[in-house]
């Protein structure tokens, strides 16, 4: 090989390591996950009693978004080794060499501290404490501890993704209440069937990198059973806002109808077993679960924004 | 080897060659884009801090006892 060819290869390698593009850094923030976090945080703000200045509400949402993005960057930094081995994640900026792990760590840490401080100074310190808890929980409890050590990783770790509506609620009220905990519980109960549906048809990926997802450790049969159990618990939890009186009939009808459909999809996975349509059924539930969560929170949002929250007679306040 | 060297030289676009510090025009362009993005973020943050200050202090200043 000539000196010039070697130099070109060295420069190409350096180019990959001499700082990624702005787009690469944006990719570190996991924008798709961030969009759901922003949306559920917005619902927490709108549904909470009391009022908040639009500029402060925007600031709260921005801090939630940046904090969630920072968690994503820190997760990519810590999980770069297994991301490189999994087909779903191998094209992320660190495994592809577009950004160095140290750069992702610095980026994520700076945004984490910045978002929490900004939330505290400009919104309130209850919301800031919850945001710090979310970031810390996602990084230390889920990513560093649970993910590689127990099949219950996403059950407990799912709490990190469930905090945003609670943070939004706290941004308005400065406190934590039964209603905001209910919003938290809806996402908390939604996470296991959502992720296990994905894990059912990606089990090979997780097995390759020794991440003990439920299908890898306990088998697909047990996973299908757990999906069904958690789906029943989820649908029951989604009806709690009606019982507590902060959601009305429209939300109740949507939650019931969408919940029944969710249960049907979960039951179809159970009935199919290891049949040839197994992957298709799991993909159907995974896809619908995203729409389902969006639908529930969108209905809450519309109901409150339009003043349609009429308590069901005999239930709630 | 000599032929390979000539071929490689011929394939390299002069505008893509590194300068004395070893940086190619592509690297400079990428750094410039990052600097621009950072500048926009800083401007947005200044605007946000100013707006929040006005919102938080505005009412208190208007209603202060003189």
Give me a quick take on this structure:
Chain A has 317 residues and is mostly helical.
Task: Give an overview in words.
The complex is a heterodimer of chains A (317) and B (66). Chain A has helices at residues 3-17, 22-28, 31-47, 54-78, 80-83, 101-122, 125-146, 153-162, 164-173, 178-201, 203-208, 214-217, 220-238, 240-244, 249-272, 278-305. Chain A has 317 residues and is an all-alpha fold. The radius of gyration of chain A is 21 Å and the shape is flat. Chain A starts with a helix and ends in a 12-residue tail after the last helix. Helices cover 73% and strands 0% of the residues of chain B. Chain B has 66 residues and is an all-alpha fold. Chain B has a domain at 22-66. Chains A and B meet through helix 1 and helix 4 of A and helix 1 and helix 2 of B. Chain B: The chain crosses the membrane at residues 37-55.
Secondary structure topology:
The complex is a heterodimer of chains A (317) and B (66).
Chain A: H1 3-17, H2 22-28, H3 31-47, H4 54-78, H5 80-83, H6 101-122, H7 125-146, H8 153-162, H9 164-173, H10 178-201, H11 203-208, H12 214-217, H13 220-238, H14 240-244, H15 249-272, H16 278-305
Helix pairs in contact in A: 3-4, 3-9, 3-16, 4-6, 4-7, 4-9, 6-7, 7-8, 7-9, 8-10, 9-10, 10-13, 10-16, 13-15, 15-16
Chain B: H1 2-11, H2 25-62
